Structure formats: structure tokens, C-alpha cells
């Protein structure tokens, strides 16, 4: 019988499953790619448990900074997409403004007092994202500033079925 466990997909994961790329300023650029490992299926629910119940939206934590260690502009957009192993282009799910995350530290983004605001801003308009072996979660960025992954961070919680 298959079992489920909570996992964290982050910019600190092994390069076997996560690819990080610096974006090109003013051009939509893929910055983060998570490839589901062999034999696994993952689900990222579009519902998050908060202290007052369950809310529609994904809870992720991000802090994107440039080479000078400054946060990128709030007007930047994160585009969530999925890509199958045989697909040439990803299927876009939703573009989200970066502004709600920009104003908060990663510690604040983990705090229940701020989660409601972030989850409400991150409704992907799908029941959830289910990815099977070889499929990928792709996040692209549209920003006037190029990020530097040495100063930046991204994290999203998922369920792994294996």
C-alpha cells in the first residue's frame, strides 16, 4: 500500500531534483524547476490549513534578491506552471504578484499571523497540482531586476506518495 509523507521542495534541494536559474531582467525567465524523482508522485494542494480553518491557496515562502542583496521589486510576477516529460512548453497555472512576499521576511511568511494574507494571494485556481515521475513544477519570473540565487530562497510544501 502506498504511503504519503510531507516534503519540502526548496531552492536548497539537491541539484538532482531542483534546477535554479538566474532570470534575465525584463524577460519572462524560468528560475526554478523541480523534477519529480523516479517512482514518486507529489501533490501540492491548493488549500492550506490556517489557525482559523482551511483556506484556498498555496502556502509558499520566497525571498528573491539581486546580486546586491536587495529584494526585487514588488511589481515582479511569479508564474507557476507544470511541464510533462514529453512537453515542449509548460502549462501555465497562474501568475502571482511578488508584492505580498516582498514585504515580509521568510520568518514572517512562516508565521500564522501572515499566512492568511499570503495564501489568499496564492490561489492557483486549480484543486491542486499532482505531478508524477518525470513531471516538473516550473516557476518563471518577470521582473525588472535579475535575481541571484546565492541571496534568494524558495520553498513550497507538498505531499509525496511512493
Features:
five-stranded antiparallel beta sheet; mainly beta; globular; 162 residues; Jelly Rolls
Overall description:
The protein is mainly β and 162 residues long. The protein has one domain: Jelly Rolls (Sandwich), CATH 2.60.120. 12% of the residues lie in helices and 43% in strands. The chain has three helices and twelve strands. It has helices at 99-102, 106-110, 112-121; strands at residues 4-10, 18-20, 29-35, 41-45, 47-50, 53-56, 60-63, 77-83, 91-97, 128-132, 136-142, 153-161. The strands form three sheets. Strands 1, 4, 7, 10 and 12 form a five-stranded antiparallel beta sheet that branches. Strands 2-3-11-8-9 form a five-stranded antiparallel beta sheet, with no helix packed on it. A two-stranded antiparallel sheet has the order 5-6. It is globular. The protein starts with a strand and ends with a strand. The model has no long low-confidence stretch (mean pLDDT 94).
Summarize this structure briefly.
The chain has one domain: Sandwich (Jelly Rolls). Helices cover 12% and strands 43% of the residues.
